[in-house]
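<instruction>
Derive structure tokens from the sequence
<data>
Labelled lines for chain and fold:
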Amino acid sequence: MRVAVLSDIHGFDLAFERVLADIDATGPYDAVVVAGDLCEAGPRPDRVIALIRQRGYAAVQGNTDYDIVHGRADGDPQIAYAREMIGEAGIAWLDALPIEIRITPPGGTSPDDDLLIVHANPHDQLQALDPGMSDRELRTILDPVSAQAIAFGHIHIAYIRQVDDILLVDVSAVGNPKDGDLRCKYGVLTWDDDAKRWMAELRKLPYPLEETRAEMEASDMPNPEKAFKKLKRATYKN
């Protein structure tokens, strides 16, 4: 069994198309799941939703998806832009997304062998499973949870780490990575029938930067120049 997990598209449809092309080239996959934060920040949140729905991919709700649904983030113009672009139908679709998806592998036992896909962590959409945390700190956030592997995004920093019996896979971001590496990223999780274990790899693809810049400048998104500079930095640091 092979599962592709991608996250944090954030309205950057051209980066999403780059990942979709790679998924098509490296497939087939038994499932493709999007781990939230689909719309806010980029120029084409409407197209991102359209592509997900056209392909019939499963998705979970991220924190910015929640903010879009409820019109939150203190009047953030990016939230307002995303709401306008996706319309009432898109808002209703985001509102209906679950906060987790479980995949039980063939021959595996649920929940202990499951692949659990969430946005940030198994319990909420906000608290990050930061790679700088100790195993003890991560256990505090994870407990109690039953799964053999957890795939997530949220902090846009790619890593794979084993904590006790749980494989953690931060698939990073399709749309705006923050780990200093401006490439579109997603994860592939493969069930090893013989070992009865999930294995993970991270795929990293060249970012369509100039095409994205042109799309941002041609759009009605708020402050495209500032947004592009933020995208290009690929880090939380100024």
Remarks:
- Strands lie at 2-6, 31-34, 58-59, 100-103, 115-118, 149-152, 159-163, 166-170, 183-192, 197-206.
- The first helix runs from residue 13 to 26.
- The two ends are 41 Å apart (CA to CA).
